[in-house]
Specification:
Elements lengths: L1 H4 L6 H17 L3 H18 L2 H14 L5 H8 L4 H14 L2 H12 L3 H14 L5 H10 L3 H14 L5 H10 L6
Helix pairs in contact: 2-3, 2-4, 3-4, 4-6, 5-6, 6-8, 7-8, 7-9, 8-10, 9-10
């Protein structure tokens, strides 16, 4: 009764913020094992609730503690439909990842929605290698979305250092979808 009179309501964002603050204090006090256990629980609960802010915060802290153990979660997050969560995962992969991650992301891009494809191809453009050009070209050829296709063409251009510019120009000028 008193809580209703005070117009009190439970705020999920506050509890997640407090949970992340608690995890940070564990880390500051050199209790990393406890922090990891707590953050894994927080991440699992946030995932069930689809609380992106909880997933982002806990995944970020977990990755800072031990990036190698979080690769699977990062790769799953990188193909998530939530733009914020996906971009945080890609930022963490950029900071803590390696060339093998880019190969895995390229495989994920081939099977992803257009929005995810666009993000992954933009990431690959900055972090990929020239050996991935054929796989990117296949994705571009199959893509039905103009944004994803442009991200793929940009990746081809950047990774080939402009050497494939004739093919790029041909693709841009012959694609009805890009010329609408």
């Amino acid at each position: 009764k008193e809580l209703k009179a005070a117009n009190y309501s439970y705020d999920n964002l506050n509890s997640i913020g407090l949970g992340l603050d608690y995890a940070e204090s564990l880390i500051e006090n050199k209790k990393n094992a406890e922090a990891v256990a707590y953050l894994n629980t927080l991440f699992a609960q946030a995932s069930k609730l689809k609380a992106i802010n909880g997933q982002v915060g806990s995944l970020t802290l977990l990755t800072q503690l031990d990036a190698k153990k979080q690769k699977k979660k990062l790769l799953l997050a990188a193909k998530n439909e939530n733009n914020v969560y996906r971009h945080v995962a890609l930022s963490l992969l950029h900071k803590y990842g390696d060339a093998n991650d880019t190969k895995k992301l390229l495989a994920l891009a081939a099977k992803s929605s257009p929005a995810v494809q666009e993000s992954l191809l933009n990431y690959i453009a900055q972090n990929g290698s020239i050996s991935q050009l054929k796989a990117i070209e296949k994705i571009v050829d199959k893509s039905t979305d103009a944004h994803a296709k442009l991200a793929g063409l940009s990746a081809i251009n950047l990774l080939s250092k402009g050497a494939d510019s004739k093919a790029l120009i041909d693709n841009l000028s012959n694609d009805a979808q890009l010329n609408e």
